[in-house]
Amino acid sequence: MTIWTPDIEHRDGPLYRAIADAIATDLAGGQLTAGERLPTQRVLADQLDVALTTVTRGYAEAERRGLVSGEVGRGTFVRGGPPGAAIRPDPDAPLDLTQNHLGPWSHAQELADGIVHMATRLPGAGVIDYQPLGGTERQRAAGALWMDRAGLAAKSDDVLVTNGAQHSMAITFATITNPGDTVFTGKLTYSGMKSLAHLLRLKLKGLPMDREGIEPEAFERACRAGPAKALYCMPTLHNPTGVVMPASRRRHIAAIAAEYGVPIVEDDSYGFLLPDETPLSAYANDAYYLAGTSKSLAPGLRIGFLLPPASMVDRLKAAISSTTFSIPTLMGDVVAEWIFDGTADRVMAWKRSEVAERQQLAQSLLGQYDDVSHPMSQQVWLTLPEPWCTSEFVNQAAMRGVLVSPAEDFIAGRASPPHAVRVCLGPIADRGRLEEGLQVLADILSQPPEPCRVVV
Ligand SMILES: Cc1ncc(COP(=O)(O)O)c(C=O)c1O
Predict the structure, then answer these.
(1) How many angstroms is it from 231 CA to the middle of ligand 1?
(2) 239 in contact with ligand 1, CB cutoff 6 A
(3) How far apart, in whole angstroms, are the C-alpha atoms of residue 439 and residue 418?
(4) What is the pLDDT of residues 26-54, one digit of tens each?
(5) Could you tell me if 189 and 204 lie in one domain?
(6) 353 in any annotated domain
């Protein structure tokens, strides 16, 4: 029988916490199931070559988080963990690599406990009431701190708290555009922007991109050719290509936008993975900067922070009141506290090291097809070799149990999509399963396409 051995090498923080984190990760990934007995403390200490007291503290921390229970004389047993966590992934279910987020796998239980703990401490009346438009003072102060860390000076009054990045985009474009207007984006763009353009009856004009993002010359040509109400862009870790725009190009794009009076809507949803990048908005004089917690913390703990030009705050508050009125108070308060007490920082630090390792793994298997993704991108962008076409590849991968997204999902307007797919590295907790899936993709690409069903 193999002994369960936690992977503690690649984790931040003290060793005892790494053991508890590993229990949480393996419970979420299905390597541990409810009722299972963990190795004795002495056996695990020998196995990991750590002091017995480290394992004792690790198990105690796991017990505090509700992951395990100790029974005198019998040992330490895995408990149910967070709802659904003990369910082993169905081995026959496809491996879905289409959702672009990385679960906070090693912190899931800690976050769940944090919500419960905080819910009991928050002042009842505040939680029950309607909230001020754009968030409470404390939530907005947390947003200002977030902006400050991103490199943007903001006071709490300047920041609006929204229901996520998508909501920030919706209220921004609903406020600054009219039906029929054109918005510039990269030739490839976030599919949520495409969908929003349909909702608001906007036209998207996709601009050529290279390995540094949107090409400034193309942006300038487009500005000269016709008016546009805004430029929507993702300079840091562009979705879907994982490209990062260098500072010199950010300045150049900002200067062109200023010259032609085009506001910039900067989506920095993945900026937390590269905290040293200065946002494009820092160079711009008319910018809407948005970020959120669905990627940086977890999709279920989702709020957004929007930093618009000061003159637009009231109009955007009106748009918030027309759409959602306020965010769920509890979520806003919990996230604000996590930003102040450092919990959010710890989760993001863990994500950075996890993303870097997953990207390395992906490059070792598929690197020959991806020459654009940044080492800190949580996705890879595979340019399919001849004679593969995107739909054939997506179908063959699905037949072999791996789901990926075709380039067409990201193409702005009616331009022809490249023969490429996006593969997300984050949505599967178990890295071993992810590796199997990536290997399947590499195997498929190492052969020519198989004959497929003929359409007559
Ligand atoms: C670039 C980008 N912006 C916005 C979003 C939406 O984020 P949220 O969940 O905060 O609305 C996503 C989600 O995939 C995204 O990739």
Answers:
(1) 17
(2) yes
(3) 23
(4) 887 778 887 888 999 998 999 899 999 99
(5) yes
(6) yes
